[in-house]
Write a structure and sequence with these properties.
- The protein is an alpha+beta fold.
- The chain has helices at about 30-40, 45-55, 60, 65-70, 95-110, 120-140, 150-155, 165-175, 185-190, 190-215, 220-240, 265-270, 315-330, 355-360, 370-375, 420-425, 440-445; strands at about 75-80, 245-250, 255-260, 280-285, 295-300, 310-315, 335, 345, 350, 385-390, 400-405, 415-420, 430-435, 450.
- It has 2 domains: about 60-90 and about 275-460, Cathepsin B, Chain A (Alpha-Beta Complex), CATH 3.90.70; about 90-275, Cysteine proteinases (Cathepsin B, Chain A, Alpha-Beta Complex), CATH 3.90.70.
- The longest helix is centred in the middle third of the chain and has 24 residues, at about 190-215.
- The two termini are about 15 Å apart.
Length: about 450
């Protein structure tokens, strides 16, 4: 912790006893509306822009072809990848980004031209671990009122989403399996309704656990009964994960290989290697509440019950240098960004200059500083992918980045995307870096006692 950076973590734990009455709040007056009409009616561009927006998608009208064209071309550093995966209608991007890195190791070791890992297998255990963690958090906070900030956070429920640490913990505990060993189902690829049911059961169980806690009952026995119901739900929706399986394939030379009696963990250890322990989450959160060079930690509702998420907060210059270093070393880079900011799914680009929303809205300026966007909840990491390339201009400065996405081959350029350096610096918030690329000073920060933050602050400090 930097000297002078102090927070009272307890003062915001509970809501005030009474809601604000709004006595000093003012409504819109007729005089204000009249002033608006008089000033805006004189803007000639409004009629033209209104006509354009009446029948056309906003991002299509905002598109600037001359700027987007600057993102075309090859890349100074570019990694060969195994093709594009498709998470479909689910929020499993963070898992797919990890699997897309691991499958490259399997494909290289086995001499395969195309290979995929099962997203259904990992997401089965992810949801079960999340359910267990939520129930554990309910038990730990059973004495708190429902309007306590922690209880409100817990009762928000769970989603498909997650962090790198969560994916790494899952892989280390359960391993991975090839995609054809536990294939996708409709429910695993279209999770919205299933998650609604899952969260309803979680909240019902939370109410029951709190009542049992007040009675002094055996909460562990009750929790195990609850977990079995979640396990049953998942078996029905996704299928039951295999205890053991056979791995049979033909390599690039058409030679046949078969190995039997594998488990998820033994497959991971033999074919992907126990590599995930070598990586650390590096963030760029330039906010007043979280200083640079700060090692911080939090326990998320989506974590495993016995696991925390740890991060090292660095400047964007440092984060960019580390990402380039890893790409030049032949390793792809898992990263989190705001995919809703200045992106075009069809064209496969992310770039503020290629989408002129400001001009389309009559010159209104939407820009906020990166830290301010985080603190005011205007932006945060909503999607995880992997960097597989970077291009440098004539002065050696990065100007575009190649991205392997998990939205299928119909999105972007056969599944690959590109972002500008401007987007990279403004909307990339975290990346996973092999510890060997960290400087000695950066490694030293990791050895310091981490600062623990509240889980609901992780995207906005």
């Amino acid at each position: 912790m930097k000297a002078g950076w102090q927070r009272d973590r307890g003062t915001d734990a509970k809501r005030p006893d009474t809601a604000p009455e709004g006595k000093n709040m003012k409504g819109i007056t007729m005089d204000q509306l009249e002033r608006f009409r008089n000033r805006e009616s004189g803007r000639k561009e409004i009629r033209t822009l209104q006509a354009a927006l009446a029948k056309t998608e906003i991002k299509d009208l905002a598109f600037v072809p001359s700027e987007a064209a600057k993102l075309n071309g090859d890349f100074s550093v570019e990694l060969k990848t195994n093709g594009i995966t498709w998470q479909q209608q689910s929020g499993r991007c963070w898992l797919y980004a990890v699997m897309n890195i691991l499958r490259e190791r399997v494909a290289e070791k086995c001499g395969l031209e195309h290979f995929e890992l099962s997203g259904n297998y990992l997401s089965f255990y992810d949801k079960l671990e999340k359910a267990n963690n939520v129930l554990e958090m309910v038990i730990d906070n059973a004495d708190k009122p429902l309007n306590d900030r922690m209880m409100e956070f817990i009762l928000e429920g769970m989603s498909d989403g997650g962090y790198w640490t969560m994916a790494a913990d899952l892989v280390k505990k359960y391993g991975v399996v090839p995609a054809d060993v536990m294939p996708e189902t409709w429910q695993s690829t279209h999770t919205e309704k299933f998650l609604k049911l899952y969260n309803s059961l979680l909240r019902k169980d939370a109410a029951r656990l709190r009542a049992l806690a007040a009675e002094g009952a055996d909460l562990e026995a009750a929790k195990e009964e609850m977990l079995e119901e979640f396990y049953r739900m998942e078996c029905i929706a996704f299928g039951e994960p295999p205890v053991s399986f056979s791995f049979e394939y033909r390599d690039k030379d058409n030679a046949f290989h078969a190995e039997h009696g594998l488990t998820g963990r033994s497959f991971y250890e033999k074919y992907a290697g126990t590599v995930l322990e070598d990586y650390v989450t590096v963030t760029n959160h330039p906010t007043s509440g979280l200083p640079m060079n700060c090692h911080y930690i939090f326990h998320y509702s989506g974590s495993m019950a016995d696991s925390d998420i740890t991060c090292l907060n660095l400047t964007m210059d440092e984060l960019e240098t580390l990402i380039i270093r890893q790409l030049e070393d032949g390793e792809p880079v898992w990263f989190g960004c705001d995919s809703g900011a200045y992106g075009d799914r069809d064209k496969g680009i992310w770039d503020p200059d290629s989408l002129d929303f400001e001009g389309l809205m009559g010159g209104i300026d939407f820009f906020m500083e990166k830290g301010e966007r985080l603190q005011y909840h205007d932006s945060f990491a909503t999607h995880a992918m992997i960097f597989v390339g970077v291009n440098f201009d004539e002065t050696g400065v990065p100007n575009r980045w190649k991205i392997e996405n998990s939205w299928g081959e119909s999105a972007g350029k056969k599944g690959y995307f590109v972002c500008s350096e401007k987007y990279f610096r403004e909307y990339v918030y975290e990346a996973i870096i092999n510890r060997k690329h960290l400087s000695e000073a950066q490694k030293a920060f990791l050895n310091q006692d981490p600062v623990r933050i509240n889980p609901w602050e992780s995207d906005s400090l």
